[in-house]
Inverse folding.
């Protein structure tokens, strides 16, 4: 939904920039025309034997991609390939990297071997610029004690600040309660769409 005019067509300007035009006025297109911008094509890097939270899947949205009305959809799924004792795993979805806004928070749970976790989020940019804003909702599983047994969790994010003129990392964070070589998880699916 880039730009202010209601386009009859999109076209390339002499500079190579994409512009939208209604036949009378035209405006540059900042951002995506829509679709998948990132899709994980292999098993992600494992988060193993550490209590330091890290992103197990991520995509950096380029600066000036998001405009008022932009929508970001994220789908993720991961697995705890190995666990030990009563150690817990917490999974979160962030916009703005680990120091950014939490979009979805999984409750720390004593996860079982090969238990899967998953979720989906929709983020809508309301205003753009250095003082931009967005709202969001997510539906995701708690990290399950047994695979596919967790109840769904629904979360809302009220209007929150975002600088659309800077790159914004969206990613899934994983945090183990204890550093143990037998604690390991990874992301198997991470898809980001922007339109």
């Amino acid at each position: 939904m880039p730009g202010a005019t209601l386009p009859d067509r999109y076209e390339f300007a002499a500079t190579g920039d994409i512009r939208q035009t209604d036949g009378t006025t035209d405006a540059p297109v900042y951002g995506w025309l829509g679709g998948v911008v990132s899709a994980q094509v292999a098993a992600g890097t494992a988060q193993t034997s550490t209590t330091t939270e890290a992103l197990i899947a991520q995509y950096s949205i380029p600066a000036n991609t998001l405009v008022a009305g932009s929508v970001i959809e994220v789908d993720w799924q991961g697995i705890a390939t190995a666990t030990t004792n009563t150690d817990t795993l917490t999974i979160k979805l962030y916009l703005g990297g680990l120091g950014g806004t939490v979009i979805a928070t999984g409750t720390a749970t004593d996860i079982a071997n090969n238990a899967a976790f998953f979720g989906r989020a929709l983020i809508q940019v309301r205003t753009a610029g250095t003082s931009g804003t967005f709202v969001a909702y997510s539906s995701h599983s708690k990290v399950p004690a047994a695979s596919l047994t967790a109840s769904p969790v629904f979360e809302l994010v009220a209007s929150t600040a975002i600088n659309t003129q800077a790159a914004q990392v969206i990613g899934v964070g994983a945090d183990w309660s204890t550093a143990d070589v037998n604690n390991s998880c990874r992301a198997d699916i991470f898809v980001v769409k922007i339109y």
Notes: The radius of gyration is 19 Å. The chain has a mean pLDDT of 86. The chain is about 0% helix and 55% strand. The first strand starts at residue 9 and ends at 12.
